[in-house]
Specification:
- The protein is of the alpha/beta class.
- Helices cover 34% and strands 26% of the residues.
- It has a four-stranded mixed sheet with strand order 3-4-6-5.
- Helix 2 links the parallel strand 1 and strand 2 (45-49).
Length: 151
């Protein structure tokens, strides 16, 4: 659904690729329903079942991840940074035993510490970073991290 929504918001993108280890059974039916309502999306979303490593990421891409559990958010960030792509992630299920969580434990909660460290790593990699918080009514894990490589 996210890939389809992003194409509706940005019609300049030619296609979107949705990657998940297991594509939900409802994905094709949802795609058919969305395409019936917005025919311009026909043929513009493809589904890849497997790891993110199976997908080539280009510097012109926008890598988006919602609720990538634990270290999967870091994999998404690493893949986007290695390609120089723009990114937007909504992290989820933080591992509080990580070094980043322990490093700032005296000042802030572990999940926030992990996300602060992620933002710092992006800046050190030459990215401009924006942070936002989504309302708790939408999602209890609502820290949004946006970034684009500086030229």
């Amino acid at each position: 659904m996210l890939a389809q929504a992003l194409l509706l918001l940005d019609d300049t993108s030619p296609l979107a690729v949705a990657v998940d280890r297991r594509i939900p059974a409802s994905a094709r039916k949802l795609q058919a329903e969305v395409t019936a309502a917005w025919p311009r999306l026909a043929g513009r979303v493809s589904f890849v079942s497997g790891d993110l490593d199976r997908v080539a990421i280009l510097p012109t891409d926008v890598v988006v991840s919602v609720h990538a559990c634990g270290a999967l958010t870091d994999v998404v960030l690493e893949r986007a940074v290695s390609a120089g792509a723009r990114l937007a992630v909504l992290p989820c299920c933080h591992h509080h035993s990580s070094a980043d969580a322990r490093r700032f434990a005296g000042w802030m909660d572990g999940a926030l510490a992990i996300d602060v460290a992620r933002a710092q790593r992006l800046e050190l990699a030459g990215y401009r970073v924006w942070t936002q918080t989504l309302p708790a009514e939408i999602t209890p894990k609502g820290r949004l991290l946006l970034a684009r490589r500086l030229i």
